[in-house]
Structures are given as structure tokens and as C-alpha cells.
């Protein structure tokens, strides 16, 4: 296990996704990260989307040409440090003509990751070869939601506003954090790397939710969040599109601020809470070429994540989302995330009693 430090993130200009995801092979089917993960506010721990996306990208280095990820489930086990590399150990579970399966265990040699004795993250990843044009099979394609769904359902918050006109997504999408930590964080934090993410103000659409989602909890279920995102490329980018790298960017974006949505949906946005991702599943739909994050002109395209929560209880919450190609209205992926969320009862009582006197800390995802 190596112990050298990775390249840290600095400055207000975000680095490209290709540079962020770069790995080097250090042994058979074993890879090491070269760039530090972005640390969500306010703690210096790795953003979970980094290890999630990079685990898939490392696994893609072990599959044959033409095989592109179509499904991934990952489990977050230990928090990740940002000052030492992630080491990705890939196991070749099966190689088939059209489908192949990989598992990945991720380690760090650091105090935050248990001295490397246990993986901090593990995943199973399935790759598929395109069957487009195969004369043996009849092609079919459908989605159960109109391709105009995003534009029509959310017209009140989207009409007349381009994706680039929405504000950048915050470091942590929580009201208590914005009130207590955002100013300091924005002065010191490096720019969110790899993917440009912009948050849509959904207050007009969502309205007000009572703490706990109201008496029947339906207030929490109707809450929706929208994030636009697009790839950050190198200035001299002219490389052939690596669809697995672009798929990794979708995976990366899908995990940004995900659990914070549930906190807002429950009406506890002012309660400092402890939260962590437990598992995250993404299923990509349709042709692999739909995952490309650049248009025919080579410029980054806009995608949008539509998110909500289907259920919560026993200090666990479920985050659901769909990823859309904004221009075409094509649904490209469905995600489901299981998370741990704990609200200190004494702070919840102050919220329900109308008091704003609160303090505390929010935990960190991997």
C-alpha cells in the first residue's frame, strides 16, 4: 500500500473531470488515484461521489473494448481521507460476450480509513456491449414519462432561465450550514471539481413543509429537487469520447448533496444533523452512446437530476432520482440511495417549538 500524498485541489478554477478521475496501475487489476477528492463542508473528508465514480472508472480499465457500464451498486463503509490515495482492487467476476461483471474493494492507508485493514468502499459493477444493429434481436425503446416532463412539470421555476443562469450548487445544501458555515467555506474551499453543478431554486414549486413532513408525511414525499450539471473539460480537450469516463461523471453528479434533499423535505433544514450514505445504486438506460456528455460539436451538454424521497424511518432515508438529457428529454438513468440520518431530539423540539437557538455539527459522508 502506498503512502504518498495525492495532488491536492486548490483555487477557484475547477479542474477537469478527466484529471480528477485519473488513476495509475500499480499491480494486476489494482489502481491508485492521483488527485485528491473534494471535501464536502465543513470537514476534510472525501466526497462519496468521488470514490463511487472512480471505482467504476478503475474497473472499466479491466474490461474489453466496447463494454460500457450499465449498472452499479456501491456500499460506503468508512469515511475517506483526502490526503492519501485511494487504492482500487478489481476482481473479475465474469467475462461474457455481451455482459461482464466486476467487483471493486477500495482501501486507504490512513487513520480515517482504518489503516487500510478494511475497505472503505466496495461495489459491484456490470458492463454491457451494445447490441445495436444485431439482426437477431428486434430493437425497442420506451420511457414511462414524457420527454417534455422536466420542462412542463417545472415550468414555473425553469421558464426563461437557462441552466447556466441558476446558482452553483452549495458545498452542503442545508439551511443551517448556509447560515453558519457558507461564508467561511466559500473563502477557503477549492472549487467543486470535474462537473459544473447548478441548483434550481424550488421554493415556488415545493411550498412549505411542516417539520416531519406533516401529519401524514405526504409533504416530504412531494418535495422535489433539480440540479443541472455538465462536464468540465480540459482547455485542449480533443480526445475521443471515453463513454465509461462520461458515465463516471453522471455517477459523480448523482451523489452531490443527495441526502440533504431529504433533510429539507422533512422540514428539518435548520437542524444540524449526522448523515452518511450507506449504499447507492445507479441503473443506466438505453444505448451507451446516450451517456456522452458532449454534443456533436464537442461542447459539454446539460443534464438534469430530478430528485425526491420515497420513504424515511428508523434513522434511515431513501433518496430517489432520475437523470435526464435536458435537450432531448431522454431519461438516461435511475438512482436509489439508502442513507443514515439522525436528528438530535432536543434540537428538533426547538424547531417544532419555534426556537432558533441551535448549534451542533453535521457528520460527513465518505
From TrEMBL:
<dbReference type="GO" id="GO:0006637">
    <property type="term" value="P:acyl-CoA metabolic process"/>
</dbReference>
<dbReference type="InterPro" id="IPR042171">
    <property type="entry name" value="Acyl-CoA_hotdog"/>
</dbReference>
<dbReference type="InterPro" id="IPR003703">
    <property type="entry name" value="Acyl_CoA_thio"/>
</dbReference>
<dbReference type="InterPro" id="IPR029069">
    <property type="entry name" value="HotDog_dom_sf"/>
</dbReference>
<dbReference type="GO" id="GO:0009062">
    <property type="term" value="P:fatty acid catabolic process"/>
</dbReference>
<feature type="domain" description="Acyl-CoA thioesterase-like C-terminal">
    <location>
        <begin position="177"/>
        <end position="341"/>
    </location>
</feature>
<dbReference type="GO" id="GO:0047617">
    <property type="term" value="F:fatty acyl-CoA hydrolase activity"/>
</dbReference>
<keyword id="KW-0378">Hydrolase</keyword>
<comment type="similarity">
    <text>Belongs to the C/M/P thioester hydrolase family.</text>
</comment>
<dbReference type="GO" id="GO:0005782">
    <property type="term" value="C:peroxisomal matrix"/>
</dbReference>
<dbReference type="InterPro" id="IPR049449">
    <property type="entry name" value="TesB_ACOT8-like_N"/>
</dbReference>
<protein>
    <submittedName>
        <fullName>Acyl-CoA thioesterase II</fullName>
    </submittedName>
</protein>
<dbReference type="Pfam" id="PF13622">
    <property type="entry name" value="4HBT_3"/>
</dbReference>
<dbReference type="Pfam" id="PF20789">
    <property type="entry name" value="4HBT_3C"/>
</dbReference>
<dbReference type="InterPro" id="IPR049450">
    <property type="entry name" value="ACOT8-like_C"/>
</dbReference>
<feature type="domain" description="Acyl-CoA thioesterase-like N-terminal HotDog">
    <location>
        <begin position="42"/>
        <end position="127"/>
    </location>
</feature>
Amino acid at each position: 500500500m502506498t503512502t504518498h500524498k495525492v495532488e491536492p485541489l486548490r483555487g477557484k478554477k475547477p479542474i477537469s473531470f478527466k484529471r480528477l478521475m485519473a488513476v495509475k496501475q500499480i499491480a494486476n487489476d489494482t489502481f491508485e488515484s492521483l488527485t485528491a477528492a473534494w471535501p464536502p463542508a465543513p470537514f476534510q473528508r472525501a466526497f462519496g461521489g468521488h470514490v463511487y465514480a472512480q471505482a467504476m472508472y478503475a474497473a472499466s480499465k479491466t474490461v474489453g473494448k466496447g463494454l460500457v457500464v450499465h449498472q452499479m451498486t456501491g456500499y460506503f463503509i468508512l469515511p475517506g481521507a483526502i490526503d492519501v490515495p485511494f487504492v482500487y482492487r478489481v476482481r473479475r467476476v465474469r467475462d461474457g460476450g455481451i455482459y461482464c461483471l466486476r467487483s471493486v474493494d477500495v482501501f486507504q492507508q490512513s487513520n480515517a480509513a482504518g489503516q487500510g485493514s478494511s475497505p472503505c468502499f466496495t461495489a459491484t459493477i456490470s458492463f454491457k456491449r451494445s447490441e445495436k444493429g444485431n439482426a437477431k434481436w428486434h430493437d425497442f425503446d420506451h420511457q414511462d414519462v414524457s420527454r417534455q416532463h422536466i420542462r412542463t412539470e417545472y415550468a414555473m421555476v425553469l421558464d426563461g432561465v437557462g441552466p447556466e443562469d441558476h446558482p452553483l450548487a452549495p458545498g452542503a445544501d442545508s439551511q443551517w450550514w448556509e447560515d453558519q458555515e457558507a461564508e467561511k467555506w466559500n473563502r477557503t474551499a477549492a472549487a467543486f471539481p470535474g462537473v459544473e453543478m447548478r441548483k434550481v431554486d424550488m421554493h415556488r414549486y415545493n411550498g412549505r413543509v411542516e417539520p416531519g413532513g406533516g401529519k401524514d408525511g405526504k409533504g416530504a414525499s412531494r418535495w422535489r429537487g433539480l440540479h443541472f450539471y455538465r462536464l468540465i473539460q480540459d482547455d485542449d480537450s480533443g480526445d475521443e469520447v471515453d463513454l465509461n469516463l462520461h458515465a463516471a461523471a453522471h455517477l459523480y453528479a448523482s451523489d452531490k448533496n443527495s441526502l440533504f434533499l431529504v433533510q429539507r423535505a422533512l422540514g428539518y433544514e435548520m437542524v444540524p444533523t449526522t448523515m452518511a450514505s450507506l449504499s447507492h445504486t445507479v441503473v443506466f438506460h438505453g444505448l451507451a452512446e446516450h451517456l456522452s456528455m458532449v454534443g456533436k460539436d464537442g461542447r459539454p451538454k446539460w443534464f438534469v437530476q430530478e430528485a425526491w424521497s420515497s420513504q424515511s424511518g428508523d434513522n434511515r432515508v431513501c433518496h430517489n432520482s432520475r437523470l435526464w438529457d435536458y435537450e432531448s428529454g431522454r431519461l438516461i438513468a435511475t438512482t436509489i440511495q439508502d442513507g443514515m440520518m439522525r436528528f438530535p431530539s432536543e434540537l428538533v423540539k426547538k424547531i417544532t417549538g419555534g426556537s432558533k437557538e441551535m448549534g451542533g455539527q453535521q457528520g460527513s459522508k465518505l
